[in-house]
Design goal:
- By secondary structure, the protein is mostly helical.
- It has a domain of 51 residues: Orthogonal Bundle (Helix Hairpins), CATH 1.10.287.
- 74% of the residues lie in helices and 0% in strands.
- Helix 15 crosses helix 16.
- The longest helix has 17 residues.
- The protein starts with a helix and ends with a helix.
Length: 268
Amino acid sequence: MDNQYKILGVDEGASIAEIKRAFREKAKQHHPDIAGENAREYMQKLLAAYEILSNRQLRFDYDRAYRAASGRRHGFNYRDYLYEQAADPDSKFRERAQAELIIFELLNFEEDAAIRMWLDLGGMNFPLAKYLDREDWMDCSFILAEELEKRNLYYEAFSLLTALIREERRLPYFRHFAQDVEISLKELVRMKLRPVVDDETWIECMQELLDLGFSAHEEGRWLKSQAEALVNIGDTAAAAAVFRAARKRDPSITASARLKKVISKECN
């Protein structure tokens, strides 16, 4: 499998602007009208590399496939080795092998096996970050979250994505994918999470989002939703205070009839 980054002469963390600039420079040098017909094949490779790396989704899929391909070690069956180490209770590398096996299976499109293993090891209680390099942990968490969401494990996906965004903001790694991670989280919260969690858990989830820091409009909506959950558990004083905070974030937010009744009662 060709290394598309090497073809363009950029590193794996290159921004879209850097990729475009590198493509323009190389295209000028190797265009068949300038370099002759012998450069046509290389120009086609340049075009293919640019098409992949300038598209977020294509780039993500390529990175995943290339990493999987480069993990096949010259005839050495790395999967068997990891399974052997992961199953050996006396191996001092057991937990690391288990963590590496999860990401190995994800990268090799054995998602069901990876999810089963992660859940058997305790799911969110299994400290992947402890046993994987930071970049591997972040890649693993993102792919895991996608696969968990497909299997309707929305709260687990939410927990992975919030942890991932918190770490990305501390020290950027995804860069060109960071926006996609945030969009995935927001869509999960907007469309799928609420029906599968109780009111107390929903309140905690909204607080997680608020602690991450988003736009005032988004925070206003999440505060309103938090206030409604507080009404459900009977904490009307907190609900009124939280809704007031929502209105400060976004004055256009309106209360439901039930929330209005609570606010009116608390104000009297």
